Amino acid sequence: MKAEQWTRGLVRVISYLVLLFTVCISLVPLLWIVVSSFKSNKAILNTPFALPTDFNFHAYYAVLKMNNFLSNTFNSVLISVTSTLVALLFYALAAYSFAKFDFIGKRILFILFSVTLLIPGHATAQPIFSFINITGLYDTRLALIVVYISAGLAVSLFILRASFMSIPKELDEAAYMESASFWQVFFYINLPLAKAGLATAGILMFLGNWNEFFYGFMLTSSAENRTLPVALQFFTEQFSYNYTQLFAALTLVTLPSIMLYMVAQEQVQQSVVSGGVKG
């Protein structure tokens, strides 16, 4: 009995140590950047792990005064929100069809959508670049919106399909008996009941679009069309010897996505687990 209790205690201690290690390697670099953004260049170089002696926002004020920072922020918000909302509408319709209707090739089509999880995003760079060039969308915000709409397809379908499958079909049948149309059943009955899945899929897509760098860098060339992750690349060059402003810029870029996830993390985790069980 004592040996069993000792084994359980040891397993629990090891589990806590692994969790603590994971949290440390994930959060410590971010906290170090935030704390360092309040220190002077000299303090960062001489005492990199010491706390700042006083807190001031001079570096943040200098970053916000830069000509392109606010326009880059506007680009990121516009592109991320627009692509997420449009993608949610299309993916919700597709997931609703997979969850509620039987049709020829349904299983094969869903497998094909799922296979996109296995394809690295960079593998499709060449055809996407050619398509954007041919359509004349290169170096426009619309090009990134079009590309980002296709991002997160498989994960969103899994989450939304599970949400629609959890809604009883009897509700749809009762609505159809009352002469409701397909769109009325979809918009007024199913979408409100699937709001948890919609919120989860939307948050995951928004975070992916907000932090995306590869296509943002490849499909834009002018400063006025850059998104924040791409602009960071140029901040690094501009602030190569001003670490305080560089860390302030990094903090301003990363904090919104972290705060959004912290607010919705419980709902996201529950919906993903639910989707894994039902899918």
A few lines on this structure:
The chain is mainly α.
Task: Summarize the helices and strands and which ones pair or pack.
Blueprint: H1 2-36, H2 41-46, H3 58-65, H4 69-100, H5 106-115, H6 125-134, H7 141-149, H8 153-165, H9 169-177, H10 182-193, H11 195-211, H12 214-219, H13 228-238, H14 243-278
Helix pairs in contact: 1-14, 3-14, 4-7, 4-8, 4-11, 8-11, 8-14, 9-10, 11-14, 13-14
Explain this structure:
The protein is built from 14 helices and no strands. The chain is mostly helical and 279 residues long. Helix 3 crosses helix 14, helix 4 (69-100) crosses helix 8 (153-165) and helix 8 (153-165) packs across helix 14 (243-278). The mean pLDDT is 85.
What is the number of helical segments per DSSP (H or I, 4+ residues)?
A: 14
Poorly predicted segments? none
Structural class: mainly alpha
- Element order, helices and strands? HHHHHHHHHHHHHH
Shape assignment: globular
Count of DSSP strands: 0
Distance between the termini: 41 Å
Proportion of residues in extended strands: under 5%
Largest beta-sheet characterization: none
**pLDDT average, as an integer?**
85
Fraction of residues in helix: over 70%
- The radius of gyration is 24 Å
